[in-house]
Amino acid sequence: MSAPRRRATLVLERVTKTYGSGDIAVQALRGVDLRVERGDFIAVMGASGSGKSTLMNLIGCLDIPTEGRYLLEGIDVSRLDEYELAFVRNRKIGFVFQSFNLIPRTTALRNVELPLIYARMPKAERRRRAEEALEAVGVADRAHHVPSQLSGGQQQRVAIARAIVTAPAIVLADEPTGNLDSASTAEVMQIFSRLNMAGRTIVMITHEPDVAAYAKRVVHIADGLIDSDEQKTAVLTA
Amino acid sequence: MAVQGVLANRLRSLLTMLGITIGVAAVIVLVAVGNGSSAAVQSRIEALGTNVVTIMPGFSFGRGSGGTQASFTQFTTKDVTALEDKAAAPDIKSVTPVVNGSSVTATFGSASYTPSQFVGTTPSYEEARKSPVEAGSFITAQDESQHARVVVLGETVVENLFGSQNPLGQTIKLNGIGFTVEGVLVPKGTNGIQDQDDIVIAPMTTTQDLITGVTGGLSQIIVEANSSHDVNAAEAEATDILTPTHSSDGTANFRVLNQASLLQTTASTNHVFTVLLAAVAAISLLVGGIGVMNIMLVTVTERTREIGIRKALGARRGDILGQFLTEAVLLSIFGGVVGVAAGLVGSLFKIVGVQPVVQLYSVLLALGVGVAVGLFFGIYPANRAAALRPIEALRYE
Questions:
Q1: Mutate which of B313, B316, B321 to test chain A, going by most A C-beta atoms within 10 A?
Q2: Please, is B101 exposed, middle or buried when counting C-beta atoms within 10 Å of its C-beta (0-12, 13-18, 19+)?
Q3: Which residues in chain B touch residue A101, judged by CB atoms under 8 angstroms apart?
Q4: What is the count of residue pairs from A and B with beta carbons less than 8 Å apart?
Q5: What is the mean pLDDT of residues A35-52?
Q6: From CA B379, how far away is CA B321, in angstroms rounded?
Q7: Shortest CA distance to B58 belongs to which of B45, B72, B41?
Q8: In this complex, is the C-beta atom of A118 within 8 Å of any C-beta atom belonging to chain B?
Q9: How far apart, in whole angstroms, are the C-alpha atoms of residue A215 and residue A193?
Q10: Per residue in A172-225, pLDDT tens?
Q11: Average pLDDT value over all residues in chain A
Q12: Which residues of B touch A104 (CB under 8 A)?
């Protein structure tokens, strides 16, 4: 495990998640312990049905665990209500999805501004921060294009800009390269590596070993439990 | 954000707006038509004078020796004198006797014309019937006492006899007897039943002397009250004065026509008519509102994924609710404003012969109800959007 001196960004303690009840109850997570330090870059791997999507939903505060505790920057978010969860998602989590999930017919700039709008940030500042975020991922020149005018790689970069614009505690990426060709995959992963080197904490879910290779740490999940957790010594950046 | 939603699907938004537009425009135009027609009827009745009561001789059935028999009555100048008694009838301002001549043919040179109304009356007719002269003068008390052979003509008669010539001072022949044209009446137009300008007015004395004879009695007596508030009192006084001399077995032999009550009756009829029209229009507004709801439901389903994304990015329930509700209200406001414009333009034209009169309240009400309808029918779809669970919404294809 990593150094316990610093306060962990994310701590899961004996987290379980059960869907349904009685005979049809399905236990997707059966007691997961996970600790992610600030500045870490972790890849969660697992076959489909292993529980990694459920884990992703819990970490992303889209759902709450059935049992166990989830501390995000020291706050127990496992018992928050809908309104508070929305607040936590807005301030502490930056999502990057497999299918980009940009709002259609809305410019890249506006898409990036969206989390800041929900954070009630004044217009001038949110415009400035959105432009900076687009600059950071190298698509500033596409700020006024709508998603349908962008390539997959560009769309995903806009989505990354949207994820980092609020300076969240973690960037949560769910199969971020699943819909991309190999060239775009490399570009996007380099952006993640760069963001991580700049101090951003990243949790990425993937089933591709090539992609997982960019992470500092790889966690395997199977049958709702953590199977292996290996810290890599050398970080691949090429 | 909501504006974008509306603009994203222009044709659909336009069609949805159209529902509200038609509803709002229909309310405005139909209420205006209802008002226009009641205003038209009211002005016709008011043209007859609202503070006058018209008394006409009639008959009643009484039991006589040979069974039921009708008894007729005749009004004479004595009745007029009785009604003019200020002590018995303090609310009566003036009393105007009228004798009508039938089929009186007027000729001037080679032109010949038979006016539909021939009226022998006194000078107070001018005020009681609101028939001022446009040129020349009305018949005077002197004409009346001197049995002068003078006439005042309505515009239709002037046109038929004189064409474009000036009739004043000319002599026309009525049933072969010469009369001097003393005045021309201000045109009144039609009252819906007859042309009010198709009239010849002569002094009553002269008319009885030369046209109708004195035996026929008066065709009607016009009683003018001091004000429109005193009409009912004046009517009661006139009835009290005339009943003793013009009744059989205690039943009055005459009919009393009160313009004010006639006006009230038509006003209430017209009100019902207007309300009915407004109700029909309101239904179309309701249908428009359902259209908004329908489209908003489709929009919410279509944009489920977008809602999921927004929620993942930190949109709260209220944010999503606000967004979709604003969209619904925007649709209905746009639709409503266009509807007001269409309704105002539509009301400029005559519709089935009625000049619509736009009421401010109907404009505000239609717009207000239109927006409220959008809001009301937007609540359910917006709520559905806001209640979506982010995980499921994100998974939605």
A1: B313
A2: buried
A3: 305, 308-309, 312, 394
A4: 57
A5: 91
A6: 8
A7: B72
A8: yes
A9: 8
A10: 999 999 999 999 999 999 999 999 999 999 999 998 999 999 999 999 999 999
A11: 90
A12: 8, 306
Write out pLDDT tens, residues A56-83: 999 999 988 999 999 999 889 988 898 9
Find the Cα–Cα–Cα–Cα dihedral B15, B16, B19, B20, rounded to 10°: -130
CB-based contact, B395 to chain A, within 8 Å? no
- Please indicate whether, in this complex, the C-beta atoms of B316 and A119 are within 8 angstroms of each other: no
Q: Are B230 and B89 in contact (CB under 8 A)?
A: no
CA distance A213 to B366: 65
Q: Which H/E stretch holds residue B69?
A: strand B67-72
Q: How far apart are CA B365 and CA B371, in angstroms?
A: 10
Strands A225-231 and A217-222, by their bridges, are: antiparallel
Three-state DSSP at B258 gives strand
Measure the CA angle with vertex B260, ends B258 and B262; round to 5°.
Answer: 70
Question: Which regions of A64-188 does DSSP assign to beta strands (E)?
Answer: 67-72, 75-76, 93-96, 170-174
Q: Where are the domains of chain B?
A: 2-44+265-395, 74-245
Contacts 24+ apart (CB under 8 A), B139-142: B139/B182, B139/B183, B139/B201, B139/B202, B139/B203
CB B310 within 8 A of CB B319: yes
* CATH number for region A39-65+81-231: 3.40.50.300
Which of A102, A104, A118 is facing B314, going by the closest CB pair? A118
Stretch (H or E) spanning A118? helix A108-118
Burial class (CB in 10 A: 0-12, 13-18, 19+), B6: buried
What are the CA-CA distances from residue B76 to residues A114, A171, A194, B142, B187 (Å)?
Answer: 93, 108, 116, 20, 30
Residues A110, A152: Cα–Cα separation, whole Å: 18
Low-confidence ranges of chain B (pLDDT < 50): none
Q: At what angle do helices A182-197 and A152-164 cross, to 10 degrees?
A: 20
Question: Which residue type sits at B300?
Answer: V
Q: What are the chain A neighbours of B316 within 8 Å (beta carbons)?
A: 83, 86-87, 118
Q: The tokens 């009004």 sit on which residue?
A: B75
CA distance to partner chain B, nearest, from residue A236 (Å)? 30
Q: What are the tens digits of pLDDT across the range B287-310?
A: 888 888 898 899 899 989 999 999
